[in-house]
């Protein structure tokens, strides 16, 4: 027995039946019928943001922190275009998102109607898939497909564009939410090819200088446990991309830090010298590989990925395995057990000795005697005060790299940042999304004075929904990351990277009803953090005035290889770059 | 190398633009593209001719497969296949050149399908190479206009692209 519902009601019922708890959105003409349907129920809670970009970031971060899809509702035209940055952000990091956008009535589509934009056209290059709903009777099936596509295989955002007449309360049709979908053109892979698995195991066990290069796919595929067991079984060094942090515990002695542009010396040298690399849910991004011609010159490469297009896109691999990461890791472990342990323990011990030598360079060391607050110090203290248990969101810039380097994550889904698109403005709405998902957890947003201003209006959302997050503003009065590149590559011509006319962030926080603090001395950092986190029910904005000229090290500059890193030259003790 | 990629794709609005958009966004080249519904009205069959190194073609095939609307595809260059393209070509004729143009069309198994006092329209099918050859052969005459469908093709024998 089915009920008769209007299109607007059907959309909301689909969300309920899909198990959606939170919907992030902003109303407007084309979605008024939908908002009326939302008003008349309380199964799905709607979170009103202050800008549609923030709705997508908050929903995206909710997804990153929980593994469940994030859901967004925006109106046509400007509402839809405002959402595009967030959709592209989710797309680049493979985050499951369902974005429902209102569209002008079917009859006027194509006539440059008021607030009309071709949302399906605009988002085509930055969604996993999108739909334009033409018929009330199609809504339920389309919604089911949208959730299915967004959450399975390589996850990603899906847009469902719904013309206003389709949600008209006067037109009712029988509602049934499909139990399953059958899409003949879409079947994500699961098991890896057994012959490939065997080849991979042979290669892995023959390694003398192995590296495990793990990525965001391990987090997305919920395969953290499998990665841990697999890595410990082999005892090989583990490095991770920015997106994979936390999948393998950062405080484990087998973990040698992030790799890539701002990765550790030991990870990048390890990659460079390695003879067998297994890439697990990582996609050989250019921030990771550096100069391709110099990338891992001695290594045979095994690559596990659910998306065949990720394999051999930029780097040729020797043993590709297409499949679900958790399943493939289990297949590998089974095969290793059958194989018996043939690990070359002698070679492995020598390899670890080499890695320890690289580690002794202490590539992340910074000046701890400074009179100024070093951003690294602030992040370290944040780690201590939160006992390493917080969910950390971040914006984009130097502060993002300090967060990745100085807040070791031991669990997946704790580190929430925009890696692929690098979207400034992500951090604050993301923190709100995470806090709504995990109300009892500590949530901090590590940001910079430039990034935070890109979605600062969300302080109002944080007030309305009482999401007590802590904003750690590493305020260097510069677009630090831009300034650093200008220092290194443009002889210090700091073109438009200095931030003049900054607001008084303390007053700003207070104006929104929050607590503001300004911290100017190193010795005040820890007490301020302690005070802030003790205020369990308040959003606190910590404006931490940091050293303006601090840089992120190590750095592989554009066009260089892993072995060609720029290290900090500590006062008086230049680090020998030829060490290796 | 030249590749002819044959694609079964959901017969839905927007499916064509997904393919075209993919090529422009990723900087792949499209030499020709033809598309029409099949005997199964829910499916269209698209034939796309492109050029690229093996690496590029591998990515093109993978990226096409990734499109949700793409049901199945095959690279005809990998299999024994038949390739055909249709061309209509209008040529200016002088009383002195008519016989010559007709003879050329016959040699290439083309048909004259429209005649005016000063022009012929020739219809011709064949591989793209053959059509190129015909155009070259009559290029000494004045070609008024040409339209070509772009190549289509089917694998020979049992190697079919079906569901
Ligand atoms: C300022 C700045 C600096 C940066 N510096 C660095 C840096 O130094 N080092 C660094 O690493 N990154 C850095 N990045 C991030 C970088 O741009 C990329 O986002 C990141 O390297 C990509 O991580 P990933 O390879 O793990 O891939 P992701 O983008 O996380 O992609 C995941 C991969 O796993 C696959 N996958 C997904 N689900 C599954 C599954 N279930 N099973 C199997 N496979 C699956 C996907 O198909 C995809 O190929 C930086 C970004 C910014 C903004
Ligand atoms: C929306 C957007 N615009 C521009 C950039 C380029 N960009 C990258 S980092 C950065 C500076 C960030 O400054 P801030 O937030 O103060 O962080 P800091 O680097 O100083 O820690 C800029 C402008 C970007 N990533 N995103
Ligand atoms: Mg800054």
Short overview:
The complex is a heterodimer of chains A (580) and B (163). By secondary structure, chain A is of the alpha/beta class.
DSSP E strands of chain B, number: 9
Count the helices of chain B. How many?
4
Q: What is the C-alpha radius of gyration of chain A, as a whole number of Å?
A: 25 Å
- Measured as a percent range, the helix fraction of chain A is 25-40%
| Spatial arrangement of strands, main beta sheet of chain A | 3-2-4-5-7-6
What number is the mean pLDDT of chain B? 96
Rg over alpha carbons of chain B: 18 Å
Rounded to the nearest angstrom, the distance between the terminal CA atoms of chain A is 73 Å
How much of the sequence lies in strands of chain B comes to 35-45%
- Residue ranges of chain A: pLDDT <50 for 5 or more in a row? 571-580
The amount of helix of chain B comes to: 25-40%
Estimate the global geometry of chain A from the Cα principal axes.
globular
Query: Main sheet of chain B?
Result: 5 strands, antiparallel
First-to-last CA distance of chain B: 28 Å
Question: How would you state the average pLDDT of chain A, rounded?
Answer: 96
Which percent band covers the strand fraction of chain A? 15-25%
Topology pattern of chain B, helix = H, strand = E: EHEEHEEHEEHEE
- Please give the count of helices of chain A: 20
């Amino acid at each position: 027995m089915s009920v008769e519902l209007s299109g607007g009601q059907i959309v909301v019922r689909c969300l309920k039946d899909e198990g959606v708890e939170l919907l992030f959105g902003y109303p407007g003409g084309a979605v008024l019928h939908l908002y009326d349907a939302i008003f008349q129920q309380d199964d799905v809670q709607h979170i009103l943001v202050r800008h549609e970009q923030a709705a997508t970031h908050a929903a995206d971060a909710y997804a990153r922190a929980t593994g469940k899809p994030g859901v967004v509702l925006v109106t046509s035209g400007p509402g839809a275009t405002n959402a595009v940055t967030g959709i592209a952000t989710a797309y680049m990091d493979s985050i499951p998102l369902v974005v429902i956008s209102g569209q002008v009535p079917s009859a006027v589509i194509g006539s440059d109607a008021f607030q009309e934009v071709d949302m399906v056209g605009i988002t085509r290059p930055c969604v996993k898939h999108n739909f334009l709903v033409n018929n009330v009777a199609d809504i339920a099936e389309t919604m089911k497909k949208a959730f299915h596509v967004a959450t399975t295989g390589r996850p990603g955002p899906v847009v469902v564009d719904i013309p206003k007449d389709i949600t008209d309360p006067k037109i009712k049709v029988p509602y049934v939410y499909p139990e399953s979908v059958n899409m003949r053109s879409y079947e994500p892979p699961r098991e890896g090819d057994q012959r490939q698995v065997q080849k991979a195991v042979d290669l892995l066990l023959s390694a003398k200088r192995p590296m495990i290069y793990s990525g965001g796919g391990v987090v997305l595929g919920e395969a953290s446990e499998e990665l841990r067991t697999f890595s410990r079984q082999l005892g090989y060094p583990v490095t991770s991309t920015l997106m994979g942090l936390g999948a393998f515990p950062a405080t484990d002695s087998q973990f040698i830090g992030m790799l890539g542009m701002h990765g550790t010396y030991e990870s990048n040298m390890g990659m460079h010298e390695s003879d067998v690399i297994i890439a697990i849910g990582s996609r050989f991004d250019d921030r990771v590989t550096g100069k391709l011609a110099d990338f891992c010159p001695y290594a045979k490469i095994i690559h596990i990925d659910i998306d065949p297009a990720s394999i051999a896109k930029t780097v040729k691999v020797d043993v590709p395995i297409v499949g679900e990461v958790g399943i493939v890791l289990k297949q590998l472990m089974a095969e290793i057990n059958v194989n018996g342990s043939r690990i070359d323990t002698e070679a492995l011990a020598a390899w670890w000795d080499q890695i320890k030598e690289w580690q002794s360079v202490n590539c992340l060391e910074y000046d701890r005697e400074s009179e100024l607050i070093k951003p690294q110090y602030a992040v370290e203290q944040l780690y201590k005060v939160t006992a390493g248990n917080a969910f950390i969101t971040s914006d984009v810039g130097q502060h993002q790299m300090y967060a990745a380097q100085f807040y070791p994550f031991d669990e997946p889904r704790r580190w929430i940042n925009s890696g692929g698109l690098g979207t400034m403005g992500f951090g604050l709405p993301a923190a709100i999304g995470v806090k709504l998902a995990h109300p009892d957890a500590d949530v901090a947003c590590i940001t910079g004075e430039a990034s935070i201003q890109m979605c600062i209006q969300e302080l109002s959302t944080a007030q309305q929904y009482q999401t007590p997050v802590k904003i750690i503003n590493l305020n260097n009065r510069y677009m630090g990351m831009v300034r650093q590149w200008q220092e290194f590559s443009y002889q210090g011509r700091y073109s438009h990277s200095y931030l003049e006319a900054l607001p008084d962030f303390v007053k700003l926080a207070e104006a929104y009803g929050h607590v503001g603090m300004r911290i100017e001395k190193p010795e005040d950092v820890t007490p301020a953090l302690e005070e802030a986190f003790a205020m369990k029910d308040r959003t606190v904005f910590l404006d931490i005035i940091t050293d303006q000229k601090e840089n992120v090290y190590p750095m592989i500059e554009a066009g260089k290889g892993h072995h060609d890193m720029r290290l900090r030259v500590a006062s008086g003790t230049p680090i020998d770059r030829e060490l290796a | 190398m030249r590749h002819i990629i044959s694609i079964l794709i959901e017969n839905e609005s927007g499916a064509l633009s997904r393919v075209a958009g993919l090529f422009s966004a990723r900087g792949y080249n499209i030499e020709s593209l033809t598309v029409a519904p099949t005997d199964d009205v829910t499916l269209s069959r698209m034939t796309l001719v492109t050029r690229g190194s093996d690496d590029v073609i591998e990515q093109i095939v993978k990226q096409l497969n990734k499109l949700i609307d793409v049901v199945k595809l095959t690279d005809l260059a990998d299999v024994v296949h038949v390739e055909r393209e249709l061309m209509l070509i209008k040529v200016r004729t002088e009383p002195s050149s008519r016989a010559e143009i007709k003879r050329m069309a016959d040699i290439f198994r083309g048909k004259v399908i429209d005649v005016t006092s000063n022009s012929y329209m020739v219809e011709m099918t064949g591989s793209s190479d053959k059509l190129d050859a015909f155009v070259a052969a009559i290029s000494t005459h004045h070609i008024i206009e040409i339209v070509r469908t772009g190549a289509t093709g089917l694998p020979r024998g049992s190697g079919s692209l079906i569901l």
